[in-house]
Amino acid sequence: MPSEPLLEVRDLTISLLPDRTLLHDVCFSIPPATIVGLAGDSGCGKTTLALAILKLLPPTPYRVAGQILWRGRDLAAAGEQELQGVRGAQIAMIFQDPLQALNPVLRVGDQVREVLYAHGAPGDPAKLLALAGLGDATRVLRAYPHELSGGQRQRVTIAQALACGPALIIADEPFTALDAPRVVELAALFGRLRDELGTSFLLISHHAGVLGNMANRVLRIGGGRVE
């Protein structure tokens, strides 16, 4: 019997005020333990859609209509207090630039602990780094972001996303700036997390070929529509 979807987007339309429609009548769903790819050229609205799912688009200049059902609850109609219990804890997001996502003046360990404390979640930062595929946890936890490579910083943001055991992780352009071997490693990591933890992923990328090789399903954005 098919699983009920974790996330179901129904007839979502995103407009830029006063009169420009960016995305029209978007419909898709993400079941548990599933990787869904979202492919499209730069500027087509992939990141805008991801931010809309978490209700992170500012009401001005954006207007969002439609339903974003998370385990049956409509996030589009939810208040900020309810959303705080979803963001990070149930749906986590990995942003495109890990250097900007991390605080330059705090050690990595403190930043991973911050996520745990913010949601009252138990967890061991060293184990989270290992889960994200980072070795030498003692050194990494004591390091500042600028002391790590770009790939290591990305793994730190993945560890942060995993901190609360979310059911869904949205990753914005995770393969950008990675060479081919690193792309393969990261794709394998996402697949392992899906298989071992039952985590679902919405992976946003303009690398449709990479998504096609690893995702259970690939959606494509073009002309303001998702297919």
From TrEMBL:
Belongs to the ABC transporter superfamily. Keywords: ATP-binding, Cell membrane, Membrane, Nucleotide-binding, Transport. It comes from the Bacteria. The keyword Cell membrane applies. It is found in: Cell inner membrane. InterPro entries: AAA+_ATPase, ABC_Ni/Peptide_Import, ABC_transporter-like_ATP-bd, ABC_transporter-like_CS, P-loop_NTPase. Pfam families: ABC_tran. One of its GO terms (cellular component) is plasma membrane. Residues 7-227 form the ABC transporter domain. This is ABC transporter related protein. The keyword DNA-binding does not apply. It is a peripheral membrane protein. It comes from Solibacter usitatus (strain Ellin6076). Its main location: membrane. GO terms for molecular function: ATP binding; ATP hydrolysis activity.
